């Protein structure tokens, strides 16, 4: 619950609590706050149990944490066999490097599509027309 509070922040909160409530009332305030948090937790657990009992036995493994989109996606990616196969066949780093090589004019692999390699569609620069060091490429009004 308090995973993101550092030591300095905790010290500041304690000093503020002592200044606001005073050392006399602070134990009573802490006791009231902890009782309130306990009541909220009990209410939450009772609501979860009611929902599980209303859903029926087919949802006995239902976890409310699965409703979080990040948790749901992570669970689907790790448990779904089709997605595991697709994920293992796709190498994103290799694809990005191939596209970067094609854009920079280096020799690209055959796995990059022809249009990305510059061999498909219309080329502004042909192989022999590459600008030299310090030269500017020709201006294309349609591309800007």
Automatic annotation (TrEMBL):
Keyword DNA-binding: no
Localization, UniProt: Cell membrane; Membrane
Molecular function terms from GO: protein transmembrane transporter activity
One Pfam family this sequence matches: TatA_B_E
Keywords, ordered alphabetically: Cell membrane, Membrane, Protein transport, Translocation, Transmembrane, Transmembrane helix, Transport
Transmembrane domains' residue ranges: 6-22
Membrane topology category: Single-pass membrane protein
Cellular component GO terms held in the UniProt record: TAT protein transport complex
Region (Disordered): 107-144
Compositionally biased spans, kind Basic and acidic residues: 124-144
GO biological process: protein transport by the Tat complex
Keyword Zinc: no
Oligomeric and partner information: The Tat system comprises two distinct complexes: a TatABC complex, containing multiple copies of TatA, TatB and TatC subunits, and a separate TatA complex, containing only TatA subunits. Substrates initially bind to the TatABC complex, which probably triggers association of the separate TatA complex to form the active translocon.
Protein family membership: Belongs to the TatB family.
General function of this protein: Part of the twin-arginine translocation (Tat) system that transports large folded proteins containing a characteristic twin-arginine motif in their signal peptide across membranes. Together with TatC, TatB is part of a receptor directly interacting with Tat signal peptides. TatB may form an oligomeric binding site that transiently accommodates folded Tat precursor proteins before their translocation.
Protein name: Sec-independent protein translocase protein TatB
Chain's gene name: tatB
């Amino acid at each position: 619950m308090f995973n993101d509070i550092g030591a300095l922040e905790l010290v500041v909160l304690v000093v503020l609590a002592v200044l606001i409530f005073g050392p006399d009332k602070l134990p009573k305030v802490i006791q009231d706050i902890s009782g309130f948090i306990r009541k909220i937790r009990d209410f939450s657990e009772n609501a979860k149990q009611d929902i599980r009992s209303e859903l029926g036995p087919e949802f006995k493994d239902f976890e409310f944490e699965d409703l979080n989109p990040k948790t749901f996606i992570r669970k689907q990616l790790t448990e779904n066999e089709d997605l595991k196969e697709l994920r293992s066949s796709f190498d994103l780093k290799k694809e990005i490097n191939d596209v970067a090589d094609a854009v920079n004019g280096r020799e690209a692999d055959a796995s990059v599509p022809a249009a990305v390699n510059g061999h498909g569609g219309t080329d502004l620069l042909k192989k022999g027309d590459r600008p030299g060091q310090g030269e500017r490429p020709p201006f294309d009004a349609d591309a800007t």
